[in-house]
Amino acid sequence: MRNKGFFWFLTILLTAVCVYQLSFTWVAINVENDAEREALLRVEDLKKKAAETGDSIKLSNGTTINFKKPESFELAKAAMINQVLSEKAEKAVYPVIGTKFKDVKARSLAFGLDLVGGMSVTMEIDVPAFVQSYARNPRDLKFKKPFEAAYAIHTTQGGDFIDLFIDQFEKKNKGDKVARMLALSEVKELSYNSSNAEVASYFHDKIASSMDGVEQIMSRRINQFGVAQPNIQKESRKNRLYIELPGVQDEVTVAKKLQSTANLQFYETYALAEIQSYLNDANIVSRSPEIKKAEIDTTSTTDTTGVDSAKAKTAPVKPLSLTANAGNKKPLFDYLKVQPGMGIGTATAEDVESVNEILKRSDVIAKFPEDLKFMWSADLEDAQNGSKAYVLYAVKVPDGGKALVGGGDIKSAVRSYNQQSLQTTVSLTMSADGSQKWGAMTEKNVGRSVAITMDDVVYSAPVVRDAIRGGSTEISGDFSIAEADDLAGLLNGGALPAPCVIKEQTKVGPTIGKENSESGLVSFAFAFLAVFIYMYFYYGKGGLIANIALAVNVILIFGCLASFGAVLTLAGIAGIVLTIGTAVDANILIFERIKEENALGKTSEEAVNIGFIKALPSIIDANVTHLLVAIILKIFGRGEIESFATTLIVGIFTSVFSAIIISKLIITSSIEKGKKVSFSTKYTHHMFSNFHFDWIGKRKYFYIFSITVSILGVVAMASRGLKQSVEFTGGRTFGVKMEKAADIETIRNAMESVFVEKNGEKSNVEIKTKSNSFNVEITTNYLLADASATSAVEQKMKEGFEKIKDKSGEVQVTDIRSISASVSEEMWSSASLSITLALIAIFAYIFIRFGQWQYSLGAIIGLAHDVLFVLSVFSLLHGFLPFSLDVNQAFIAAVLTVIGYSMNDTVIVFDRIRESLNFDKNQHEHKQVINEALNRTLSRTFNTSMILFVVLLVMFIFGGPAIKGFLFALLIGVVIGTYSSLCVATPILIDFTKNFKIKEKKK
Q1: 847-896: pLDDT as tens digits
Q2: How far apart (Å, rounded) are the C-alpha atoms in residues 704 and 718?
Q3: How far apart are CA 738 and CA 70, in angstroms?
Q4: What is the CA radius of gyration of the chain?
């Protein structure tokens, strides 16, 4: 083997890098386990403190709980875990190298909601608030009346709010124009005389273009936790973001941060010297109980957000409101440490709320200028005493409440490096109008700080060195590279002067996460062990070498997934299972070729070299077709399909590397050292060597079988159909509060026993914990066709709970709502497009590679046959087997896996047929040559199929009920995929081909 030293170095380097990358996952898990133990101790202390005051206490996230209620302990635990992890975010936790926890978590392997639980959120731009933010005066009756009328229609009947508003405006203000009601001083696209259609078009375009900014803003907010690994998907057509937050414990805090207004603004600030006397007065006043003033008429105050306060959904992250509160036991300066150069002062994370309580007292507010607003820094910063603290800034709010410069004035922002100061900075380029405003603002504030804020939180407060008139500027702030990239991304995100609202929010509890982890990961480990045993049993020392290569392959896969920040889901595990199959298949191909060369009398070294050379075309063809499919699925797929494609792409490269490079390195090194490498055992030495079966002669029986099953399947799908899950049908969701902690499987079994349709079939039921294990959401499509059956469904659900009353206790229905299948229909469209394009790519590649369209036709018909067979089995057997055969997103991943496996098997069989035909050179009849080729490749076909089947069977036996239907589809797919490559694709190739192209021998 040439360049052996280089390949050894590359193998060791890649393995070491991946092990190092995976070590972050191990460290993160240990830190989180420690955090949970610490949180439990804090909860016990909190419980004791609450007992002294009547069992009620306020948590750090603002939620008030009563420990007499059963769910309170879990709520307190979740809040404490979040608090502990937030405190650890900036602490070094990785041994020796001292990496901070937030960086460790960011580099660890991410798991999806279906494996570890967490929080799933569907967010949408609040279009009414967006429109309202453009109003010159939201209280002007010409604007207010049509706005409220459109809002009423929108909330009760649905529809596009912008079109509704324009329609209502034209009805109530005949002959007038909407543009005259809007503040257009900074809107180039519109003028005072713009038509209503132009205004509507501007609003639609602005919302659509703002989605990228909202996505970045949401990512920034989520990253503030230092513990979440977000998976954010954007849907511009509906102005929606689908956000997955695996492992999130504190749902309340997350919801507040996600919903707050995303408005980037640049403010002037007060220097400490300018308000020192005010602070002193506030400190003196804070020593005494609050002197309450008469309530202020809020209708006369200026709305600085541009959104009617009556419609505001949530407060910003750390705002200071004008609500009066009781006096504090300690004065202001006991919590706020006044420090020059650090805003106007600093406070520890524990003291921030105490400072807030003092500063929002009405008698303290009266001591400060009316245009002053306090804002905290977004992150903990290094204080003068070496500790970490939040910095408090005093910003100047202009008349009207709008910042002098906003996010819309920024054209671009990039990370840069100042050669003079040797610091990482952020370079800004302003728009034309922004340049003028920025020049005026910086000229006025030379030597002073300008606060860059969002949601009343200061992300940066750079000092202006000189007036900036060229439209470009540089922000310095002792940034790390990551912090500079973060700030640049924030600025590039732009400003959206409207809040986002949460349309759907579900917390998947740890029970579901634990179940899927055990069924998907633990059983995967058992299956992996079964592969090792089988390979060693069948191939002896060669199998042991393949096992080593396979183990390295798995390390490379998981290491790469962690490096790329991919999110591993159940569909991802399906992709890894397929990857293991192709990796083992590559080794089996090589070993079978080596055995053939050994049988011809070649030396061990010659047999190995020739075996690798002859197996290479088949390995390349199979993996290239896989790669084409995976890339298409990655580009056009979403959700489970994208997760499947990601792991498959990574696995293709690692599998080829491990089979071709690692296996050959170990084999050739052993041979060079004089060690014998066997590729069979005494039990398997002559297995399949004398096997002769007339595959081609029996093809009419295969046709009869396949056609019969296909017809039965079509009839079954036409009559019984597929049992679709609520993901695809929609249904009803019931929020239920229980007296005892939920046992998900017990509840599911109880619900399935009562949600039985008239035809005797069980309806689909999905159960998730919500907020804590005492609250569950039960979603079902039982009696879905009857829109008036909600009460009947609720009654059936209560009957189900009566059966398990000893485990659930008393139950209370807290919420009832209908859910649509609109998102799932898009999933179907995405899946259909992806699979169609993948099949076209397969057809094209096989045609180019094999030179005859009949090969492509055989492969495509074989794939279609396999998919139809799996669908037929699910249609025929749903309702008869003791586990669910629901069609859900995991099922789509299973079908994709079946397509991948079948394609791999068919391509390798075709490669062997082509080789045999070229070798024979028309000496025998083509059918005879093809028949012999199928028999010679049977050992490879059997072993690959057997290994995959054993993997899936072990996972099926040890896995939980949540994944049995998914694994059953894969089991059926492996069997039928093997069958189709031999008994469907090959007969189609023969019956549609008159003359095979034979490669001419080079003279």
Answers
A1: 988 889 999 999 999 999 999 999 999 999 988 888 888 887 778 778 88
A2: 21
A3: 9
A4: 33
Written as six digits, the tokens of 534 are: 């089988």
Q: How far apart are CA 480 and CA 493, in angstroms?
A: 20
Mean of the pLDDT values across residues 986-997? 88
Tokens coding 546: 């393949």
Phi, psi for 477 (deg, rounded to 5): -170, 35
Tokens 């009353």 sit at which residue? 805
pLDDT digits 0-9 by tens, 155-202 = 888 788 999 999 999 999 988 999 999 888 767 788 888 999 999 999
Question: Helices 744-754 and 790-803 sit at what angle, rounded to 10 degrees?
Answer: 130
C-alpha distances (whole Å) from 933 to each of 79, 748, 919, 927, 975 are: 65, 51, 11, 10, 20
In this structure, are residues 896 and 610 in contact, taking their beta carbons and an 8 Å threshold? no
| CA nearest neighbour of 391 among 348, 350, 358, 361 | 348
Hey, which residues does 393 pair with through a beta bridge? 375
Mean pLDDT, residues 784-804: 91
**Cα(669)–Cα(656) distance, integer angstroms:** 19
pLDDT at position 256? 64
pLDDT of residue 796: 94
Least confident of 449-458, 823-832, 899-908: 823-832
CA distance 662 to 553: 9
Q: Which two tokens stand for residue 491?
A: 């600025």
β-pairing, 472-479 vs 423-430, is antiparallel
Question: Among candidates 518, 552, 550, 554, which has minimal Cα distance to 531?
Answer: 550
DSSP labels, 804-858: THHHH-SEEEEEEEEE--HHHHHHHHHHHHHHHHHHHHHHHHHHHHHS-HHHHHH
Nearest CA to 389 out of 417, 418, 347, 339 is that of: 347
Q: Are 63 and 252 in contact (CB under 8 A)?
A: yes
Q: Largest Cα–Cα distance of the chain, in whole Å?
A: 108
Overall average pLDDT of the 271-282 stretch: 92
Where do runs of H (alpha helix) occur along 239-398? 251-259, 272-285, 352-359, 362-365
- Among the listed ranges 276-280, 575-579, 752-756, which one has the minimum average pLDDT value? 575-579
Does residue 665 carry a pLDDT above 80? Answer: yes
Beta bridge partners of 816: 734
As given in the structure block, the two tokens for residue 667 are 């084999």
DSSP 288-320: S---PPPPP-GGGS--TTSS-GGG--S--SS--
- Is residue 599 classed exposed, middle or buried when 0-12, 13-18 and 19+ CB atoms within 10 A define those classes? exposed
* CA atoms of 981 and 989, how far apart (whole Å): 11
Of residues 914 and 401, which shows the higher confidence score? Answer: 914
Say how far apart CA 904 and CA 51 lie, in whole Å. 65
Structure tokens at 99: 């990496």
- Cβ-count burial 278-302 (b if 16+ within 10 Å, e if not): bbebbbebbeeebeeeeeeeeeeee
Residue 855: what residue type?
Answer: Y
pLDDT band at 514 (very low <50, low <70, confident <90, very high): low
